[in-house]
Amino acid sequence: MSKRILIAASTTGYQTRAFGEAARRMGLTPVLATDRCDHLDNPWGDDAIPVRFEQPEASARSLAADEGVRVDAVVAVGDRPAQLAAHYAELVQLRFHPPGAVAAARNKYLARERFRLAGLASRQYERYGLDADLSAVADTLAYPVVCKPLGLSGSRGVIRADDRRAFLAAAARIRAILDEPAVRQHHDPADRFLQVEAFLPGREFALEGIVSGGRLHTLAIFDKPDPLDGPYFEETLYIAPARIAAAERARIVETTARASRALGFTDGPIHAEMRVNDEGVWMLEAAPRPIGGLCANALRFTRPGADGATPLEEVILRTALGEDPWEWTLAGAATGVMMIPIPREGIYAGVRGVDKAAAIAGVTEVAITAKLGQRMRPLPEGASYLGFLFARAGSPGAVEQALREAHDCLDFDLNAVLPTLPVER
After folding, report:
1. Which residues have C-beta within 8 Å of that of residue 183, sequence separation ≥ 6?
2. CA nearest neighbour of 104 among 41, 151, 170
3. By the 8 A CB rule, do 180 and 233 touch?
């Protein structure tokens, strides 16, 4: 019988299908655990087991007690699914990061505390409850600062403030985001806090890796060529391999390994982000999951004896099943992805220029993920992109140029959002 693998994922996650397809290509049987509605009979047609990510321990116990859920490995797609996967793996003694490590990584304050205690470079940071007297707090800060919600990901709600007025405006804006029903339904205590950090200048990078037996194996290091200095921090371009010297690469890897140990990661993927300046490498975050969205489509790997290029999902699945990750290396000369930014709020009504963008030399895929009629919101309120552009070429510079040229070809129609008027009775 084929081995079975539990995939904890959101029903709307970009990568859920990619992991299922990778599992089937490998001859595995994927078993999905998702946040689908438990009152409908198989609404997505994927036979997913309904779970509640806001109740990870209870959902994990339910899965572990279910005789029909007997699997050989577990993987997770996304931050909240990783918490459930960690509890489940601990209960049934499968390889994954420990629950405490996942919980610390998901909370920006707890992560900062562990980094500081481990001796990693750290700027001033503090946590405040949303009901605190932030007007008084504003008088104590050394500007510029960066304001962050503790539990949201993808730069959502992250705002730079250069003075007292900007800080209070940023805090009000973050409070409004955290009060949105889609956030409140998670019942996460972290979503009632605001973190304030000293602004950190420097170039930003990301590391994709696998932790096995507590040891970090680096798969790829991306550079982010666009400056991320605020007031919002929308990520757009990821280019690999990063255009850095070997010594700088070694410092990034060594710092990420220390951060991984500080959090307590043991077995599974890691996506880490950091800033580098003349003072050193500064960890921003290290998440117990693969790179988000469709960005993993940019990554292909090879190893001695491998037939062709292998996607990231398959590497993660193989490692979850016990294979060593140490021989996997990035395939090809250079690769990259652009997360297509949302220029302004509006209702998506279509796009022109897709064929022209796809014809740019080096571009391998144009994936428009926005749906007709979907309300698109830019950062800091937004939590999605219009789509993704992918490119491969002989150098990182050529990849960046191809992605920028392809983006210039696209013209998106975003209709105005009409105000909602109260109904008179």
Report:
1. 152, 177, 191
2. 151
3. no
Is 185 exposed, middle or buried (CB count within 10 Å of its CB: 0-12, 13-18, 19+)? exposed
The per-residue b/e assignment along 363-380, b for 16 or more CB within 10 angstroms, e otherwise, is bbbbbbebeeeeebbebb
CA 247 to each of CA 115, 201, 206, 244, 396: distance values in angstroms, whole numbers, following the listed order: 22, 20, 16, 8, 18
Distance (Å, whole) CA 130 – CA 185? 17
pLDDT of 389-424, one tens digit each?
Answer: 999 999 999 999 999 999 999 999 999 987 765 656
Dihedral angle computed from the Cα positions of residues 237, 308, 290 and 259, in that order, rounded to the nearest 10 degrees: -90
Strand ranges (E), 224-279: 237-240, 268-277
286 touches 272 (CB < 8 A): yes
Residues 357/132, Cβ–Cβ less than 8 Å: no
One-character DSSP codes across 165-187: HHHHHHHHHHHHHHTSHHHHTT-
- Judge contact between 404 and 376, C-beta under 8 A: no
Distance separating alpha carbons of residues 184 and 191, to the nearest angstrom: 8
CA distance 235 to 224: 8
pLDDT at residue 3 in the model: 95
Buried b (16+ CB within 10 A) or exposed e, 17-46: ebbbebbeebebebbbbbbbeeeeeeeeee
**What residues contact 217, with CB distance under 8 A and at least 6 apart?**
209, 210, 211, 325, 326, 328
Report the C-alpha gap between 99 and 95 in whole angstroms.
Answer: 12
Distance CA(417)–CA(425), nearest Å, equals: 24
* Four-CA torsion 15, 326, 216, 206, nearest 10 degrees: -50
The pTM for the full model equals 0.94
Residue pair 207/256 in contact (Cβ under 8 Å)? The answer is: yes
Q: Check residue 416 and report its DSSP letter.
A: P
User: Is-contact 402 343, C-beta < 8 A?
Assistant: no
Counting as low any pLDDT under 70, the low residues of the chain are: 1, 12-13, 37-46, 420-425
